[in-house]
Amino acid sequence: MVDLKTEIADKKTLKQAIERVDTVENTLGLEIIEVVEQAAIASSKWMGKGEKNTADEVAVEAMRERMNKIHMRGRIVIGEGERDEAPMLYIGEEVGICTQPDAKNFCNPDELVEIDIAVDPCEGTNLVAYGQNGSMAVLAISEKGGLFAAPDFYMRKLAAPAAAKGHVDINKSATENLKILSECLNRAVEELVVVVMDRPRHKDLIQEIRTAGARVRLISDGDVSAAISCAFAGTNIHALMGIGAAPEGVISAAALRCLGGHFQGQLIYDPEVVQTGLIGESREGNLARLKEMGITDGDRVYDSHELASGNTVLFAACGITPGTLMDGVRFFHGGARTQSLVISSQSKTARFVDTVHLFEEPKVIQLR
């Protein structure tokens, strides 16, 4: 029999937990829009200038500055830029007002929101540098422990619409999955469009998709946008297949979990598979690194609920250059206009947010 004090304590703990979840949704949900907006605006000023690292660096600094104004204790569990030594919000970095040295003066531990954050301040740095479509500032957040801390490896990915969830499988061939997609979506295989990163490692995959009768859309960078596009009808993107960066895989999984779409990911630790020379010198060394991180089965296939397991998961993105889902940043004299996407697992919403930013007294505010 539970005594009255224990029951009251349990109810208080439950109430605090519910309030913290509400805070993540209601408070942080608004502020993370500004985080990605500021990163996108900063990066877009370098659009077309051929300076991918600078476009990334200013996005990182803008994102960090805005996150450090949020009343939270945040921890970066997935950073960016490790592979090419670009500036980054590094893994383990703490952000938010409540991480400051004098935080005890204005942060109540009982009301403290502790969250894990996955970021890519400039998803598609080459796209920005060369003025190409599809770049955006992205992040995903969840309560502490709610996001998979992916190593800076690569990941084999399969994304598909909600209608195909649980039917397609990353362990099946592309041909098999296309047949399943065709049945689930009530479309001929010839009507399907599959996005694949334009990389030498995908030569056989691309050929198989084409032989099966489907169409291939090759992209140079930015597979987060492609994965999310699978969940929205009207994008004319029906699947993402192939190997891309693992951190971006977790961010994609967070969005697709909220949208009810299909996402599976499998870490790739063999340098010969990715053919880039960017993930370590040997297969054995990478397996040892995974073991140090607590990942004992390097071949395990993860679904979206395992990669983004938190009770509350929020995803936010803001277009830097125009893309399938969002417009890029558009400047006018005295300001800029942005379009963002915020997706929540709690409220089960996907909000497209159109924002006018006034930098000074404008002469004209462009409506569209």
Mean pLDDT rating: 87
- Portion of residues in beta strands equals 15-25%
The CATH architecture of the largest domain would be 2-Layer Sandwich
Reading the helices and strands in chain order gives HHEEEHEEHEHEHEHEHHEHEEEE
Overview of this structure, please?
This protein has ten helices and 14 strands. Helix 1 packs antiparallel against helix 2 (52-67) and helix 6 (223-229) runs parallel beside helix 7 (246-259). Strands 1, 2, 3, 4, 11, 12, 13 and 14 form an eight-stranded mixed sheet that branches. The protein is an alpha+beta fold. The longest helix is centred in the first third of the chain and has 41 residues, at 4-44. The N and C termini lie far apart (64 Å). Residues 4-18 and 81-86 have low confidence and may be disordered. It has two domains: 4-147 and 311-358, 2-Layer Sandwich (Fructose-1,6-Bisphosphatase, Chain A, domain 1), CATH 3.30.540.10; 154-307, D-Maltodextrin-Binding Protein, domain 2 (3-Layer(aba) Sandwich), CATH 3.40.190.
What's the short story on this structure?
The chain is 33% helix and 24% strand. The protein has 368 residues and is an alpha+beta fold.
Topology:
Layout: H1 4-44, H2 52-67, E1 73-78, E2 94-95, E3 114-123, H3 125-129, E4 136-143, E5 154-160, H4 174-185, E6 193-197, H5 203-212, E7 215-219, H6 223-229, E8 239-245, H7 246-259, E9 262-268, H8 271-274, H9 283-292, E10 301-303, H10 304-307, E11 313-319, E12 330-332, E13 335-344, E14 349-358
Parallel strand pairs: 1-3, 6-7, 6-8
Antiparallel strand pairs: 1-2, 3-4, 4-11, 5-8, 5-9, 9-10, 11-13, 12-13, 13-14
Helix pairs in contact: 1-2, 6-7
